[in-house]
Structures are given as C-alpha cells and as structure tokens.
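Q: What would this complex look like in 3D?
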Amino acid sequence: MLYLYAIIDQSLPRLPITAGLAGTRLFSLGYGDLAAIVSEVAAPLPQPTEANAWQHEAVIEAFMAQQTVLPVRFGTVFSSETAIKSILETHYSSLIADLQRLRHKVELGLRVLWPAQAEVPLSPPKVSGETAKTYLRARLALSQQAQAQHQEAEALAQRIHTPLAQLALEHTSQILLTPRLLLTAAYLLPQDQVSLFQQKVLESQELRPALQILSTGPWPAYNFIRVKLNE
Amino acid sequence: MRNNSPDLAQQVTLLDLLDRILQKGVIIQGDLTLAVADVDLVYVGLRLLLTSVDTAQKMRSAAYPLEPSRPSLAPKTPF
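A: Here is my prediction, written as structure tokens for the whole assembly.
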C-alpha cells in the first residue's frame, strides 16, 4: 500500500535521507509539474502514535526547504500508483493554485493559556435555591457573570490576536477551545517575517506575564490549504 | 516564552502537531483512508487525548462530570 505524505511542486525532487513511516523508503510519483511523496507501507497500517505523528511531519518538513509543499493528512493510503496519479491529474489546477499561493509561506501556531485558577467556565456552575424564584435569580446572576467573563476573555484574546494577524497574509482563530485555552490561532506568514512574528509574540508575553503565550512552528501551511479533493 | 516550562512547550507543540496532521492539510478520501480521519480530538485541560468519537463521550463525562452534554469542540469560527 502507498502512504501519501505530501504533494510538491517539482516532478523529480531530490529525495531527502529521511525515512518514511516504519523505516520505509520514500519515493516520488511525478505528474506534470507535481509530485506525490509516498512510501510503500505494509499492513497493519500506521497508527497515529506520537512517534508516527512526528515521522509524518519530518518527511513533509524535509521537503520544505527545497520545494513548496502541500502536507497531506495523516493516514492517507492508496492501493496503487495509478490511484494517486489520477488524483494529481483530476485536481491538477487547484493543486497548482494552492502551491503558488503558498510558495515561500509558512504557518505559525499560537496558543494562549490562562493560569489554571483563572479559567473561564464554558457554562455556569450549578446553583441551588430555596424557592423557584430565588433559584432562578441565582441562576441568572451566575449566567450574567459567566457571560461578562466570556466577553472579557474575548476582548483579551482579540488584543493578543490583532497585532499578530496584521503581520499575516491569512489567519484562523478560536477562543476558549477549552476553559484553559484562551486563544488558539494559526497565521500564514512569508518566510522572512517569521522572526518578526516571534518577536511580537515575546513582546505580547512580556506585557501579560499572567498568561502563557506560546508560538509553535514554522509549520507547513496545514491550516491554509484550499484545495478540496473528492474522488 | 522564557517563563514557560519546557514541559508545557512540549505539550503545546504536540497538541499543535496532532491538530494539524489529523484535521488539516490536504484531505483526500483515499481508497484506503485510515479510520483516524474520523478521530475527534478531545482536550482535557491541556492534556490532549486522541480518541474515537465513541470513547470521547465517555472521557468527556469523566472530565466534566457536571456537564455531560458539553459539545466536543467549539465551532471553528474565525473572529
């Protein structure tokens, strides 16, 4: 079976020394100006363990320096070379469009964490009351308080996100994915803007010592792929 | 980031990696796409647990006993 790691914008790439999953040998399948990076894997299929996750990522990153790379989701396996080439053929122009748009771009991730004791509850805690009326009043007060906290969290997340988003070509963000994760975001940046971005993250951290502001990457542009492939 | 423990940085990096490779990138319905395609990522505190939708419900109830009906993930709306 052929495990697919990435689609790149060069039909005959120089292959890195990196091994594929389970120590398999990488090779490329060219079509036009594109190539699929694959390796032959045997059953049982690779599971998303921490080691396999990093190996999948390592293969993609090994191509990033030389080519533009469209990372493929973990666990995408085909039975034949023909099946993969037919995908490259069918979606050729949209794959080329994504590759051109993402050339010399990388993705930076951001997570902002509340200190554990300051988490904003996702829903108000339970209340008890003597009568229906006092119960409802208590319930209302709590829900208003939770709503105010939520708005405050949103405003704070926005103050961190906005200056970083201004450096980015595209961005995505979510607030309070969990009570502790105030902000989860991804930013698409030109390669040469990465250190400026990281500098801004450090400044933001210094302004807000109570929060933990962590940036990860540069990553391949996972969050900014537009091509939709349906068989 | 100098105040952050290496443990936390490592955890966040793994979280970011799994978020990306399991849910983002080029998504192809291959002729042999692994079942992980339907995996639901569940965050408990910051510890990321990777599981199927089925066991996710159990874990969620264990992690948030007062909120058994809590939705799995917030909708991905940009602001």
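A: To summarize the key features: Strands of chain B lie at 40-44, 47-51. Confidence is low (pLDDT under 50) at residues 64-79 of chain B.
Q: Very helpful, thank you.
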